[in-house]
């Protein structure tokens, strides 16, 4: 399937990333993994994605830094943020005030089905 | 019968003395009356002397008075004999009486001269009066001093007590001051002068006796904290005992002062707990993140497996892998929870011997991953030598965590201000020669203003913005380290490559573990 949608996952916890990759792959998506924000930016340059899924706390370049870079590349690329701690997104920054839309926040522990539903919805909105 | 001793008593050859006076009545009357009066006077003097000596039994050299009495009595007798021989020529007997008088007189005269230096040494009434006066003055001064000390003893807010130490080792409550009576609820009238065993509850008595014995054995002042059940209830005291020795060097008394520190202790504990909660608060963010990771993995793997199961795409190998992984992740969560639990519980009871390295390692492990996410490296260079310090392991861990948390805050602030920072070094070194263990936490967060460096251990002093720090962390840390008889210092440090920071050093005295403690630790 040459027109499979491409999902980039930036997550430093490899075990979590692997299972999401497996799930989304089985649902027909092409998945690329990046261990931190910096790696994600590099991969996006080589191989643009249809959706970016990212953790917030990561070494080198964190989630916010990555989204900033993504928005530099594309103002419309859907971004899904997975976060484990409430305070991280309560700072009333670009993450929550709509600046970085289209953007959805999922709380850890996330359900793979919820990720899939969000991906589908965001891509449909985009379409 | 001429010659011989008897012949002198033979009066037949003599004439009475009155013949010499030619029996002239005027002359006889003059002699008789003078001799009789003198004799009577002489006889009355010994009576007065004897009366005086008998009344004044304290008089010095009383035998001299007896000698005087005998001498004067003898003199008196010679006068009466003078009258007798006017009519009766008993000149032999008169001679004997005179000889006796002479003997007693000579004895008295010699004794008097022999006695003279000692008699002169006797204080005169004037001297006595002066001495008496001085004595009165001294008594008055002493009375005033005693009043002053009694006033101290009775009015001082400090609880004071005096314990008498009997030769058989019994401790008697000698006296307690009103402040002590008020503070303890003990009734001085009921307990003073009685053995400790009889007036205090058995447990309390056993406890204080052990301390008294310790002070007597040590032979020097000791001070300690103790919690006692007394009529006023269960209170904690800071007590100082000072031994008092007699001339032979035996401890015969213990002077005690006690300060009720119940409220202060409670407050201190509250502060420690409050600071712990504050530390917990700052750690909660990191903890939530730490917990959400394994939880996230479990959920994703479980749901993914379920999805595969429903799609008919789940083989045995994958089930094995998923379940193993879930097990591992719950294990990881359990460890985090354990850590939080041990950290947040109150360190009840007494101190223990423990290896400070464990506390340091535990604190480092707790934050290492979390700080890495902020791009902060925690480098630990830990001396593996085993040593033991006395204290509470989790309190020490709390102190180290607090230092790490401060270091991180400093680094983040430094970065916000556009500086380069991101490395925390943790060092642990055992110095066998000096019997100390050193824990050093060094950051590159820019350092602390020299002007405030001396105040950073003050309670409620903080350099952080409002809402970020309670200002209790370091002061509590200071208290904890001090309670372990250690020291905590801070110095600014130039790393040499343009980076600057602070180094906090905790120095703790190392205790050689006693066999019993080692056995206990291994039990």
Q: Helix tally of chain B? A: 15
The average pLDDT score of chain B comes to 84
Provide the structure class of chain A: alpha/beta
Fill in the CATH topology of the largest domain in chain B.
Answer: Heat Shock Protein 90
Number of strands of chain B: 13
Beta-strand fraction estimate of chain A:
15-25%
Order of strands, main sheet of chain B, comes to 3-2-1-6-5-4
Explain the overall architecture:
- The complex is a heterodimer of chains A (127) and B (523).
- Chain A is α/β, with parallel strands linked by helices and 127 residues long.
- Chain A has a single domain, classed as Response regulator (Rossmann fold, 3-Layer(aba) Sandwich), CATH 3.40.50.
- In chain A, 39% of the residues lie in helices and 20% in strands.
- Chain A is built from four helices and five strands, in the order βαβαβαββα.
- Chain A has helices spanning 14-26, 37-46, 63-73, 112-126; strands spanning 6-10, 30-34, 51-55, 79-83, 103-107.
- Chain A has a five-stranded parallel beta sheet with strand order 2-1-3-4-5, with helices on both faces.
- In chain A, α3 links the parallel β3 (51-55) and β4.
- The longest helix of chain A is centred in the C-terminal third of the chain and has 15 residues, at 112-126.
- Chain A is globular and about 35 Å long.
- By secondary structure, chain B is an alpha+beta fold.
- Chain B has four domains: 5-120, no CATH class; 155-260, 2-Layer Sandwich (Beta-Lactamase), CATH 3.30.450; 264-346, Helix Hairpins; 349-523, Histidine kinase-like ATPase, C-terminal domain (Heat Shock Protein 90).
- Chain B is built from 15 helices and 13 strands.
- Chain B has a six-stranded antiparallel beta sheet, sandwiched between helices. In chain B, strands 8-10-11-13-12 form a five-stranded mixed beta sheet. In chain B, strands 7-9 form a two-stranded antiparallel ribbon.
- In chain B, α11 runs parallel beside α12.
- Chain B is rod-shaped.
- At the A-B interface, α1 of A face α9 of B.
